[in-house]
Design brief:
heterotrimer; A alpha/beta (640); B alpha/beta (372); C alpha/beta (204); A: alpha/beta; Rossmann fold; 7-stranded mixed beta sheet; 6-stranded parallel beta sheet; C: 204 residues; alpha/beta; 6-stranded mixed beta sheet
Chain lengths: 640, 372, 204
C-alpha cells in the first residue's frame, strides 16, 4: 500500500480510493483509526496502520466493528479526530452503538466510512448501507471521483464538528478499490491534548431520548443548509435539459460516459450529488423544476430515488410534473452492481436512441467463440490451503458417522466450503459468529427427534469477532455440538490482517497472542487440536468429538494460511507424479486427486491419462500424496 | 454368460442403499471411495467408473453360480443340500491347548496354523475382535497370531478388506482366508471375474469356510448389549444348540443369556436372503458338531482341502472321526432350511418367482436347490 | 491508436497471478509522467482462483471512470489465455490488440471433468478472430526458465509496453520498476521486462 504519510503536497499520486480516504484523514489531522477488516474497506485502516508511527497516530484492528466504532468514538469524545471503517456487514454489527451515537452526538470530528459491495463480489449478501443515515439522523456523503475520496473525507471531519455528530461516508467497490490520480494536500498533526470532560450531565449519552432525538433532527436541518453550497454537489449539462440524470458515487463516471457514448451532451444534464442525506433540497428542486424526466443512477437500493420522490411529494407544485426512471421503473436493475453499459442502455431506452456497443458481426463472432468454454471460473481454496484438507476430513468423518451430520458455516475464506472446493460441507453462512449461533439452536433440538451431529465451523478471526458470546450461550444452554475452529493464524480473506491470536498489532507491535484452545479450555470444554495436513489424525479426532455426546466440544484445526507462509518460506515439498504408479481413471482411483480433491496444483493430462503437478501453482504442501491411492504422488522435502 | 458388471453408483443403489449388504468387506480396501466403518460400508465420495471391482466381487450383485463354481471346483454348481462335497467328517484340534481357545473343536485354528507352518500359505486373513466387540479382518503369520483370533464372531466383519489391502503387498505370496459363506462367495467371484484387476486373487491359497446362519449389525447390537454388560470385558459369545434358544455372552465379570428372539432384530437383512449355510465355495467348511461337545463338523470340498486335512491328521495336528448319520441329516436339514427361508425372502422382495435378485439360476438348479 | 484518448486497457487473468501489481506499475508510471490514470479492479474472494480483471483508463485530458464499457477495450493483456478470450468476447472490437500468455490455468470445472479446456489452436484462433492483431507469448516458460514463475506478469508487462501502444516508452516503465521494487529483486525484474519487450512487434 502507498505510504500516504510521506507524499509531497501538490504532487499527483495514483491512489486507491481507500488510500485517498486514508490520506484525507491525515490531511484532517486525525489521531485515531480503528476497523475490522472487510472488503472493500480494509485498506483504509490498513494504509493508516502502515504509516501510523511515521504520522504519529494510533491505529488498531479491533475485534469487531462495534468495538471499533466505540473505540473511535471515545477518541472523538476526548477531543481527538477519529476515523472508523467497515464493510456493509460491519455496519450491521456496529448498528446498535451507531443508533445511540446518532442521538448522543460527538466532540472532535468522527467519520464512519461504510463500504458496500454491490453484486456481493466478496460478500455473502448484497446490502445498501445508506438508509442508516436517514434512520439514525446522520449526514451521508458519497465520493464520486478519486480526488473527492480524499477531499470529501477531509471535509467530513469539519462537517462532523460543525454538526457535532458522526458523519457517514459511503463507498462502493468501484470507488474504494479503484485507483486514480489525486492531487495531495497538506497533512495536519492530531490534537495532542486529549481530555474527556463530561461537563453537562448526560452530555455523552442519548438521554433524555426524545430531547436528543429532536436535537438530532435539528442537526439534519443544519446539514441541509450546509449542503446547499457544497462544492461536492455539481451540475454538468445544458440549462434546459430534456432529461436530468441525478446520480451519486460511482454513478457519476458511468453517467458521464453514457451521455458521451450516446452523444446526448446537449440534451441530457447530470446532477451529481456528493451529499445524499439529507438532500440539499433547494438545489435539487431547482434542477428538478427544469425537467419532466429524471433518471436516477445509484448503486444497490433506490435510496436516492426514493428520497427525491419524497421531496417532490412534499411540494409538487415547486417542481411540476416529473417522471422518474431508475431502479423502480426497471431501467436500472434492482440488484447487482451497475456499470457504464447499464446506464447507457437505460438512457438509450428512455430517449429512444439506438446504441450498438460493438458492430453486429463482431458481436456474433464473439458469441460463437465464447461457446468454447462457458463455465465460470469458480473461486476456491488456494493450492496448499489448510481449509481444503480440513474439509476433506470433515466430509469423511461425517460420511463415516452416517447420522446425517452437517456443518453450519461462517464468514471467511472457509465460507467457500459452501461449494465444491470444500466438498459442499458448509450448509449455512449468514453473518460473523452465526455458525456457533445456529449450533445453539440445532444443538437443542434433541427433544424434537433431532439426531444429526452438528459441527459449527468458524475461523480464528471470526472466533474473536463474534463466536465467543454464542459459544458461551451454547455452553450455558447445554447445546450439543462440535465447534470446529479453522485456525490459519490470519484474517485471510480480507488481506491477512493480524488479530488477537496472531501476537502482533495493526501497527506491528508485539501483542499477547490469545490462544483459542486455551480460551475454550478455560470455558471448561473438551478441546482437541489437530494439524489439518494430518488427514488421518484430523478425521479421527473429528469422529471422536462428534460421537462424544453431550455439550459443546472443540476441535482447533491449526495450520498457517498457505499464502502467508509462502511470503516467508519456500515450499515444504517438491511434488511430482510417478506416471507408472498413477491409477488415473481406472478402478481404484477414478481420478480422485483432480476430480474430487481438486487442488488447483493438480492437473489431469487427458492425452497421457495421468495426473500432473502444475509447478506454477503447486504450493508444495504435500497433502495430495496422502490422497493418492496408488502412491503415485511423490513428495520430497525441500531443504529449509 | 457372465453377469453384467456395473460400477460403484450401482452397487450403492442395488445393494448398499437397499440394506442388502452383508459387510463381507469385498468392496472395501481397494480404493478411496468405499470404506468400512463400525459395521457399515460407507461411500466417502462418488466414484464415476462404469465397471468396478466393488460391483463385480460383491456377493449380493447378480451372480452366476455355475461360473463361480467352475472357477472354484472346475465343475458346475452342485445344488445339493450342502453344496460341493467330497467328504463330511468330525474333527478337533489335537491337544487341549488349541481346543480350549477355540469355539468348539478348535479345528479352524489348528488347520490355519498348520497350513502356515507347512508353508502352504505364508499368511492368513482371519477375523479378530477389537475393543467394544467391533470385529475386523487381520493378517496373521503364525500359530500364536492365529490363536489370537480364535472364537466365533456373531457380528458381521468386513474381513475381506484385509485381503484386498494386504494381497497387494510384496510381503505376501500365498494367503489363506477364514471366510463366512458370503466372504467365500466373494472370493470365488474374484477368482471367476473377467476383470483384469482381480485384487491379486491368484495369491489366494486356501479358503477355510465357516458355517453361518446369520450375522449381526454392529452398532445397534453393540448399543443393545452395552445396556446389559460392559463391552470391554467380553471374551466370548455362543449360541448353544436347540432347544436352548439363547445367545450367551461371556465376560470377565459374568456370563449372561439373552433370549435369541431379542437378538434376532439385529440380524443384517442381507442374511435373510442368503442361501448358503455351509460356505459352499471353500476348500473345507467347518462348524459345530451338534451334540458332540468339543468337536467340529468338517466338509471337505476340494482336492486342496482333502490334502490339507490328510496332512494335518497324519501329523497329529487334528483328530478325525466319522460324523454320525443323524448329524449329517440334521446338517442337511438345517442348510435346506436356510435356503428355503432365503429363497422365500428373495421372492418376497422381488415380488416374482422369476426374479431372484442376485442369483442367476437355471430352473434345473433351482429345483435341485430346494427339493420339494 | 497511440493518440486515442482515453486509451482503454484490460489486464485479465486468474486471482493470484499478479494483475494488480501490473496495473499499479503501469498506472504509477503514467501518473508520474503527467497522465490521468484510472484503474478499476476486484479484490477479495475473486482473488481465490477466480477470474480477475483490471480496467486501466489512460488520458491526457481528464480522469475517467473505473469500468470500461462493452466493446471499448483498445488493448487486452491476458495473463491467462482463457480469460483473455472471455474478456475479448465482452470488451473487444475489430480494432482491439491482444497480447496473451499461452499457459493455461485449469479451472476446477476442467479438473473435475465437467468441461474441456479449449485447445491452443482454438484459443489462438479465437484471439485472432476477435482482434486486429494478437500475440500468444510463452511468458510463463520464460519465467520458469528464469527461476520464478511469478515473473511471468513482468514479462507480460514488457510485452504490453513492447506493442508501442502505451504513450510512454520502455525506459519510463523501467524507472517505475526501480521505484517500486526492492533493490535485490530489481535486476531480475528488469531482465524479465526486457525479455517481454522483445516478444511482440510494434502494433501502433
Amino acid at each position: 500500500m502507498a505510504n500516504v504519510a510521506t507524499f509531497e503536497p501538490g504532487t499527483a499520486q495514483l491512489l486507491m480510493g481507500n488510500e485517498g480516504i486514508a490520506r484525507g484523514a491525515l490531511e484532517a489531522g486525525i489521531g485515531f483509526a480503528a476497523a475490522y477488516p472487510g472488503t472493500p474497506s480494509s485498506e483504509i485502516i490498513g494504509t493508516l496502520a502502515e504509516v501510523a508511527k511515521e504520522a504519529g497516530i494510533y491505529v488498531e484492528w479491533s475485534v469487531n466493528e462495534k468495538v471499533a466504532l466505540e473505540a473511535a468514538t471515545a477518541a472523538s469524545f476526548a477531543g481527538v479526530r477519529a476515523i472508523v471503517a467497515m464493510k456493509q456487514n460491519g455496519l450491521n454489527v456496529a448498528l446498535d452503538f451507531l443508533m445511540g451515537l446518532g442521538m448522543t452526538g460527538t466532540n472532535a470530528g468522527l467519520v464512519l466510512v461504510t463500504c458496500d459491495d454491490p453484486g456481493a463480489l466478496s460478500s455473502t449478501e448484497e446490502e445498501d448501507s445508506r438508509p442508516v443515515a436517514k434512520w439514525a439522523c446522520l449526514p451521508l456523503l458519497e465520493p464520486a471521483t478519486f480526488q473527492e475520496e480524499k477531499d470529501m473525507t477531509k471535509w467530513a471531519f469539519e462537517l462532523s464538528e460543525a454538526l457535532k455528530t458522526v458523519c457517514l461516508l459511503r463507498g462502493v467497490t468501484r470507488t474504494s478499490h479503484a485507483r486514480g490520480d489525486v492531487r495531495i494536500g497538506e497533512s495536519l498533526p492530531p490534537n495532542r491534548e486529549a481530555k474527556f470532560e463530561a461537563a453537562v450531565p448526560l452530555q455523552y449519552t442519548s438521554l433524555p431520548a426524545p430531547l436528543k432525538h429532536g436535537l438530532a433532527h435539528q442537526k439534519m436541518d443544519r446539514a441541509r443548509e450546509i449542503f446547499e453550497d457544497s462544492p461536492f454537489n455539481w451540475y454538468e449539462g445544458p440549462e434546459e435539459p430534456e432529461l436530468l440524470i441525478v446520480t451519486c458515487g460511482s454513478g457519476w463516471f458511468y453517467s458521464l460516459e453514457a451521455v458521451e457514448a450516446l452523444g446526448v451532451e446537449k440534451t441530457v444534464g447530470i446532477l451529481k450529488l456528493g451529499a445524499t442525506w439529507p438532500l440539499p433540497e433547494k438545489l435539487v428542486r431547482r434542477r428538478l423544476a427544469r425537467v419532466e424526466k429524471v433518471l436516477v443512477v445509484e448503486e444497490i437500493d433506490p435510496f436516492l430515488e426514493g428520497n427525491l420522490k419524497e421531496l417532490v411529494g412534499e411540494d409538487p407544485a415547486a417542481v411540476g410534473a416529473v417522471k422518474f426512471y431508475g431502479k423502480r421503473s426497471g431501467h436500472i436493475p434492482l440488484s447487482g452492481e451497475i456499470n457504464p453499459d447499464i446506464v447507457t442502455n437505460a438512457l438509450s431506452r428512455i430517449l429512444g436512441k439506438e446504441y450498438e456497443p460493438v458492430d453486429a458481426d463482431y458481436a456474433q463472432k464473439a458469441l460463437g467463440l465464447t461457446g468454447l468454454f462457458t463455465h465460470p471460473r469458480m473461486v476456491g481454496f488456494c493450492a496448499g490451503c489448510p481449509h481444503r484438507a480440513t474439509f476433506w476430513s470433515v466430509k469423511n468423518a461425517l460420511k463415516m458417522d452416517g447420522r446425517g451430520g452437517f456443518v453450519t458455516g461462517d464468514i471467511g475464506c472457509y465460507t467457500m466450503a459452501l461449494g465444491p472446493t470444500g466438498f459442499w460441507q458448509l450448509k449455512t453462512a449468514q453473518a460473523m459468529g452465526s455458525a456457533a449461533g445456529m449450533a445453539c439452536g440445532f444443538g437443542n433440538l434433541g427433544g424434537f427427534g433431532f439426531k444429526q451431529p452438528v459441527i459449527a465451523a468458524c475461523g480464528d478471526s471470526t472466533f474473536f469477532h463474534a463466536t465467543i458470546p454464542a459459544l458461551i450461550s451454547g455452553i450455558y444452554n447445554r447445546a450439543n455440538y462440535t465447534l470446529l475452529v479453522l485456525d490459519n493464524s490470519a484474517t485471510a480473506m480480507t488481506g491477512f490482517q493480524p488479530h488477537p491470536g496472531t501476537g502482533v498489532t495493526a501497527m506491528g507491535e508485539p501483542a499477547p497472542a490469545i490462544d483459542i484452545a486455551a480460551v475454550c479450555r478455560a470455558l471448561g470444554l473438551r478441546v482437541e487440536v489437530a494439524d489439518p495436513f494430518d488427514l488421518k489424525d484430523t478425521t479421527k479426532k473429528l469422529l471422536d468429538l462428534i460421537q462424544d455426546e453431550g455439550g459443546v466440544r472443540v476441535l482447533v484445526s491449526r495450520r498457517e494460511c498457505a499464502l502467508v507462509r509462502a511470503r516467508r518460506e519456500k515450499p515444504a515439498y517438491r511434488m511430482r507424479v510417478d506416471a507408472a504408479r498413477c491409477i488415473g481413471e481406472s478402478c481404484g482411483c477414478a481420478r480422485i486427486c483432480t476430480r474430487v480433491f481438486q487442488c488447483p496444483g493438480l492437473i489431469w493430462d487427458a492425452a497421457d491419462g495421468v495426473a500432473k503437478i502444475d509447478e506454477v501453482i503447486c504450493a508444495g504442501c504435500g497433502v495430495c500424496a496422502d490422497v493418492c491411492p496408488g502412491g503415485a504422488i511423490i513428495r520430497e522435502a525441500n531443504q529449509p | 454368460m457372465s453377469p453384467e458388471i456395473k460400477g460403484c453408483q450401482q452397487l450403492r443403489a442395488e445393494v448398499i442403499d437397499r440394506d442388502l449388504c452383508s459387510l463381507c468387506g469385498a468392496c472395501v480396501g481397494m480404493c478411496p471411495y468405499l470404506v468400512a466403518y463400525k459395521g457399515r460400508v460407507v461411500a466417502l465420495d462418488d466414484c464415476n467408473i462404469s465397471q468396478g471391482r466393488c460391483y463385480a466381487f460383491c456377493p449380493r450383485t447378480p451372480t452366476d453360480l455355475d461360473l463361480v463354481s467352475d472357477s472354484t471346483f472346475g465343475a458346475p454348481y452342485d445344488a445339493g443340500p450342502i453344496g460341493t462335497v467330497k467328504d463330511v467328517i468330525m474333527t478337533r484340534a489335537a491337544g487341549d491347548g488349541v481346543r480350549s481357545r477355540g469355539q468348539y473343536g478348535g479345528t479352524v485354528s489348528a488347520l490355519a496354523s498348520f497350513a502356515l507352518e507347512q508353508g502352504l500359505i505364508d499368511s492368513a486373513v482371519l477375523t479378530s475382535s477389537g475393543p467394544d466387540i467391533l470385529p475386523e479382518g487381520t493378517l496373521v503369520r503364525d500359530a500364536a497370531q492365529v490363536l489370537g483370533c480364535a472364537r466365533s464372531n456373531y457380528v458381521a466383519s468386513p474381513t475381506l478388506a484385509a485381503f484386498n489391502q494386504r494381497a497387494r503387498g510384496d510381503d505376501v505370496r500365498k494367503i489363506g482366508v477364514v471366510a463366512t459363506p458370503c466372504q467365500a462367495l466373494a472370493l470365488a467371484k474374484m477368482r471367476a471375474s473377467p476383470l483384469e484387476n482381480r485384487n491379486n486373487i491368484d495369491k489366494l491359497g486356501l479358503v477355510i469356510g465357516l458355517f453361518c446362519t446369520w450375522a449381526l449389525r454392529y452398532q445397534e447390537f453393540a448399543r443393545f448389549l452395552s445396556d446389559r454388560v460392559p463391552l470391554g470385558g467380553i471374551s466370548k459369545f455362543d449360541i448353544p444348540p436347540p432347544p436352548a434358544d439363547v445367545f450367551q455372552v461371556f465376560s470377565d465379570s459374568r456370563e449372561i443369556s439373552i433370549p435369541l428372539d431379542d437378538v434376532r432384530p439385529f440380524i443384517r437383512p442381507a442374511c435373510n436372503i442368503c442361501l448358503d449355510m455351509t460356505a459352499e465355495f471353500s476348500d473345507v467348511s467347518v462348524g459345530a458338531a451338534e451334540g458332540v461337545s468339543g468337536w467340529n463338523t468338517l466338509i471337505v470340498r476340494s482336492d486342496r482341502g482333502r490334502e490339507l486335512v490328510e496332512a494335518a491328521r497324519a501329523r497329529g495336528v487334528i483328530e478325525v472321526d466319522a460324523l454320525p448319520e443323524e448329524n449329517l441329516n440334521h446338517l442337511k436339514e438345517a442348510s435346506l432350511g436356510k435356503r428355503k427361508r432365503g429363497l422365500s425372502n428373495i421372492v418376497k422382495m422381488s415380488g416374482s418367482e422369476d426374479d431372484l435378485l442376485y442369483l442367476n439360476l437355471s430352473s434345473d438348479t433351482r429345483r435341485t436347490l430346494l427339493p420339494e | 491508436m497511440k493518440d486515442k484518448d482515453p486509451l482503454n486497457i484490460i489486464i485479465t487473468g486468474v486471482g493470484g497471478q499478479g494483475n494488480v501489481l501490473l496495473s499499479q506499475l503501469a498506472g504509477k508510471a503514467l501518473v508520474r509522467n503527467g497522465y490521468h490514470a484510472t484503474i478499476g479492479e476486484t479484490y477479495g474472494a475473486s482473488q481465490r482462483g477466480g477470474a480477475v480483471m483490471s480496467h486501466l483508463r489512460v488520458s491526457r485530458e481528464k480522469q475517467y471512470g473505473p469500468l470500461i464499457a462493452q466493446g471499448q477495450a483498445d488493448i487486452v493483456l491476458g495473463l491467462e489465455p482463457l480469460e483473455a478470450m472471455r474478456v475479448l468476447a465482452q470488451y473487444g472490437n475489430p480494432d482491439v490488440i491482444v497480447v496473451s500468455n499461452s499457459r493455461p490455468i485449469f479451472p476446477p470445472a476442467v479438473s473435475s471433468g465437467d468441461a474441456e479446456y479449449p485447445t491452443p489452436e482454438q484459443i489462438g484462433g479465437a484471439l485472432k478472430q476477435l482482434s486486429r492483431k494478437a500475440w500468444l507469448v510463452d511468458a510463463t516458460d520464460i519465467a520458469l526458465e528464469m527461476g520464478a514463475p511469478i515473473l511471468a506478469n513482468i514479462v507480460m508487462m514488457g510485452a504490453l509496453v513492447g506493442t508501442g501502444l502505451l504513450p510512454l516508452g520502455p525506459e519510463l516503465f523501467e524507472t517505475e520498476l526501480a521505484e517500486s521494487l526492492k533493490r535485490d529483486r530489481l535486476d531480475i525484474n528488469i531482465t524479465a521486462f526486457r525479455r517481454g519487450l522483445a516478444l511482440v512487434g510494434d502494433a501502433a
